[in-house]
Amino acid sequence: xxxxxxxxxxxxxxxxxxxxxxxxxxxxxxxxxxxxxxxxxxxxxxxxxxxxxxxxxxxxxxxxxxxxxxxxxxxxxxxxxxxxxxxxxxxxxxxxxxxxxxxxxxxxxxxxxxxxxxxxxxxxxxxxxxxxxxxxxxxxxxxxxxxxxxxxxxxxxxxxxxxxxxxxxxxxxxxxxxxxxxxxxxxxxxxxxxxxxxxxxxxxxxxxxxxxxxxxxxxxxxxxxxxxxxxxxxxxxxxxxxxxxxxxxxxxxx
Length: 254
Known about the structure:
Blueprint: H1 3-13, E1 22-25, E2 28-29, E3 35-37, H2 38-41, E4 42-45, H3 49-56, E5 59-62, E6 69-72, H4 73-82, E7 91-94, E8 97-100, E9 122-126, E10 141-145, H5 149-154, E11 166-167, E12 182-183, E13 186-188, E14 193-200, E15 203-211, E16 215-216, E17 220-225, E18 231-238, E19 241-244, H6 248-251
Parallel strand pairs: 1-7, 2-8, 14-19
Antiparallel strand pairs: 1-4, 3-5, 6-8, 9-10, 11-12, 13-16, 14-15, 15-17, 17-18, 18-19
């Protein structure tokens, strides 16, 4: 069990200190505003009504406009951490994930003549320097208002875009995190000996080969057979694991 998972489990399962809020997740919700808050996802109760109201008002992400969005407890905890909510002070209960339906705004639609200029939203910035090659964690970033629409468009706004990705270059503290500065973490590196699984006509063949390219999950890469030095293309499926949808003629070459 990873250190992060043990920390998350403790935050969720252990009772909080005296006066902590109870955050009971709903199985589904339909927000009435363009931005989903913690109060939409959960019923928040506390001995101090002001504390419950403040937690309920924490904004999390834009409401879906089409297909429903599923928010799991771990993702919710990540969102609350970057908004500086002390998870250890509160207790979570209820559903393990929340289905968020498209918003049904109760506010009247603005008149065309009263349309305001578009304002910039939020972007993710680095809390501290992120080294080249480091895998980005939720605690490494925070949400800040974008100074302009151009900066908003150039930066990442969702945790899904950055958490678990590898930094292609060093990112200084306070810098807006751009999508092109990240990539999916490499599972295979050039020169690695990798396992190759081939499936064809109900037959599974497993062998080894040497990677000729770097590759992240799902990337096609070239490998060289350790038996006869033949080169062929495979798809990365895991750490030093690849798969080839081999035709019968290709299997005979192994």
